[in-house]
TrEMBL record:
Residues 1-25 form the signal peptide. The keyword rRNA processing does not apply. This is ABC-type branched-chain amino acid transport system, substrate-binding protein. Belongs to the leucine-binding protein family. Keywords: Signal. Gene3D superfamilies: 3.40.50.2300. CDD domains: PBP1_ABC_ligand_binding-like. Pfam families: Peripla_BP_6. Residues 40-393 form the Leucine-binding protein domain.
Amino acid sequence: MPARKRRLMAMAVVAAAAAAMTATAATAQKKYDPGASDTEIKIGNIMPYSGPASSYAVIGKTEAAYFDKINAEGGINGRKIKFISYDDAYSPPKAIEQARKLVESDEVLLIFQPLGTPSNAAIQKYMNARKVPQLFVASGATKWGDPKNFPWTMGWQPNYQSEGRIYARYILDHFPNGKIVVFWQNDDAGKDQVKGLRDGLGDKAAMIIADKSYEVSDPSIDSQIVALHDSGADIFFSWAAPKGSAQAIRKVGELGWKPKFFLANTATSVAAVLKPAGLEFAKDIISTAYLKDPTDPAWKDDPGVKTWQTFMDKYYPDGDKLNANNVYGYVLAQNMAQVLKQCGDDLTRENVMKQAANLKDFSTDMMLPGIKANTSPSDFFPIEQMQLMQFDGQAWRLFGDVINGEVGH
């Protein structure tokens, strides 16, 4: 064989080997678990589209609309999102059924934003046993930030203990001699909130002179509110889902009782809670915020709010622009998109959790200035700052500085 031909053959072999190595490297760079491919990322979701907490259903609808927007703009790293959302009616047994369906039949990459403390508590062990991310849980219970025992579960919003501590700090500064009563939801969410308030009050925890719980399924909560009114307290806390909070605001108002009223952040929607309760009864209530409220005139000309309004008009025209839950769903979907962007071509469940635990000062244009999401392998609480706000009869008005309610990890 002529030397030139041998040389050419050798070069061809080298080139073929190099091409094979490059192909292998390219294949090696792309890693997929069930629910991910070159063209698609399947995301599961569980929402109470029916049942006692159905006012939260709009969160799932906004998230679906945001993923439609992402897909219309070409997807994430060239992959379209397939968002599969099921109703659990705020029922833990139904949540377990839907989680199994999403993981075992639909084979989703992860379950994003399943809503409610009882539902998430019911699926947490299953999700961790299956090593499927239960990511950015829509509940502020502190148990979603326990990477040592539950490395596949992560919350997102400020946890209820942080919120309780923030209120406690404000009360100690402004009403150190107040008498506090607490109306709370009989589940981990309510217990967490009361614990945060007690811990925050420290050696002044005896300021809490009475508390009454209720079940989310209770048709009426009047007897609890009357008993708390009769205790002679001048500070009232309502830690309840939207329906229970609306009933509490109305009953306090009907009794002509005028305590300093604090309302859980999860029940501050003007459309879903305050209007049904009666705006006249809601005046002067204090709560916390970490997202921009589109009803607040302060944001009238804000570019971020305008971008959100344009999104609502185009992708969720039936959505109520007065409902803060539609802002929450939008921001959460943006944060989910950020995690998937960070994953690149390594769309394994392990890498999804790794990237979720590697958020650095993440913020969007609908988060309040100064509020940022930060996580690490040992810190599964993305947002721990909030700002106080007061309802003026028409809209929420922010006051004071951004306060950190960090709970020891």
